[in-house]
Design a protein that fits this description.
By secondary structure, the protein is α/β, with parallel strands linked by helices. It folds into two domains: about 250 residues, 3-Layer(aba) Sandwich (Aspartate Aminotransferase, domain 2); about 90 residues, Aspartate Aminotransferase, domain 1 (Alpha-Beta Complex). A hairpin with a 6-residue loop joins β8 and β9. α5 packs across α6 and α12 packs parallel to α14. About 35% of the residues are buried. Bound molecules: pyridoxal-5'-phosphate. Pyridoxal-5'-phosphate binds next to α5.
């Protein structure tokens, strides 16, 4: 089934072979690196050498953490890189399409647009969940990938796992489930358990949110080995750099710090929800399985600008379908949250 969905030029592609694909130790005079060293001395990293194209040490470490074999793992320069690579593997420009369920994360459509791939858009239902009938009725065989985001950005809710399972059973496309916020929702809500059953499922994860590593640009996907092999086939040869790998290793020697962040963020989220509930003029606080809260408020754009003038920036999502007057608030530290609430109160009372 996967083979049928791969673009012909990608199937036939003869990939670039990098020097470090062939040899990675010995006296390395094969890649025109600087044999004398590097101008930058960085705590034990050999910055004069190209990094491991196969990402082996990272894949092995992550494999232990997830309990998934390493050949089902691929790292990208942020999960945004993987979104682009998946579109390039499966969608013929000017011919194929992806399906997205709005309102959702904006990069799926942008990545498709860049690749001249059409986005077939349908709406999430009134609870921002999947209407499986609508998806199935609007599906056609030019749709090579369906992007689902669970928990969904910007609405904050998990998507129904049974609906995802139904789509995996009934639809002959790749189904990507973007789990950028899964750390905040609980591992039991992940679709990771469906991977063994469905070779067309791809899970996306990132180090940019719970792990606090947005700056190193590191994301990964978990998928059938066949899909992983195509990702390796078409990626830039050395996509994950040595400083990023170093930060990854430090992160994995300190997993409890990430868990501590998640606990603090969830408790601050509850504080914010309690305080928001006390304000007059907030029409709705949407349920959140993430590190942000979506609210509906009168004159959202005006309110957003007013509090921005006072130095606190939240995201106006009013322009997205079914999100009239909606603002998305990332949970801050306790002091930041107190300041935000007081500015919101002031803005609402004017
Ligand atoms: C933040 C976010 C990402 C971005 O991930 P990077 O790894 O930083 O590229 C991906 N998907 C969703 C839904 C996000 O909100």
């Amino acid at each position: 089934m996967i083979q049928e969905l791969i673009r012909k030029n990608i199937k036939d592609l003869k990939p670039y072979t990098s020097a470090r694909d062939i040899y990675n130790h010995g006296i390395l005079l094969d890649a025109n690196e600087n044999s004398f060293g590097s101008v930058v001395d960085s705590s034990g990293e050999l910055l004069n050498r190209y990094p491991d194209p196969l990402q082996l040490s990272m894949r092995k470490r992550l494999s232990e953490y997830l309990g998934v074999t390493f050949n089902k793992l691929f790292f990208g320069v942020g999960s945004d890189e993987i979104i682009d690579l998946l579109i390039r593997i499966f969608c013929v420009p000017g011919h194929d399409s992806i399906m997205i369920l709005e309102p959702t994360y904006g990069m799926y459509k942008v990545a498709a647009d860049i690749n001249d791939v059409k986005s077939n858009t349908i709406l999430l239902n009134k609870d921002f969940n999947i209407d499986t009938e609508t998806v199935i009725n609007n599906w056609n065989n030019s749709i090579k990938i369906i992007f689902l985001c669970s928990p969904n950005n910007p609405t904050g809710n998990l998507l129904n796992k049974e609906s995802i399972r139904t789509l995996l059973q009934k639809i002959n496309s790749i189904i990507v489930v973007d789990e950028a916020y899964i750390d905040f929702a609980g591992e039991e809500n992940s679709c990771i358990g469906l991977l063994n059953e469905f070779p067309n499922l791809v899970l996306l994860r990132t180090f940019s949110k719970a792990w606090g590593l947005a700056a190193i640009r590191l994301g990964y996907c978990i998928a059938d080995e066949e899909i992983i092999n195509y990702l390796f086939k078409i990626k830039a040869p050395y996509n994950i750099n040595s400083l990023t790998r170093k930060a990854f290793q430090v992160a994995f020697s300190n997993i409890s710090k990430k868990d501590g962040f998640v606990t603090s963020i969830l408790s601050e989220k509850q504080f914010l929800i309690n305080e928001l509930n006390k304000l007059n003029g907030i029409e709705k606080i949407f349920p959140s399985d993430t590190n942000y809260i979506l609210i509906r408020i009168k004159n959202a754009s005006v309110i957003q600008k007013k509090i921005a003038d006072e130095g606190i920036i939240i995201r106006d999502r009013s322009n997205q379908p079914n999100l009239e007057n909606c603002l998305r608030i990332t949970v801050g530290t306790h002091d930041q949250n107190i300041k935000l609430i007081s500015l919101l109160q002031k803005a609402l009372n004017k």
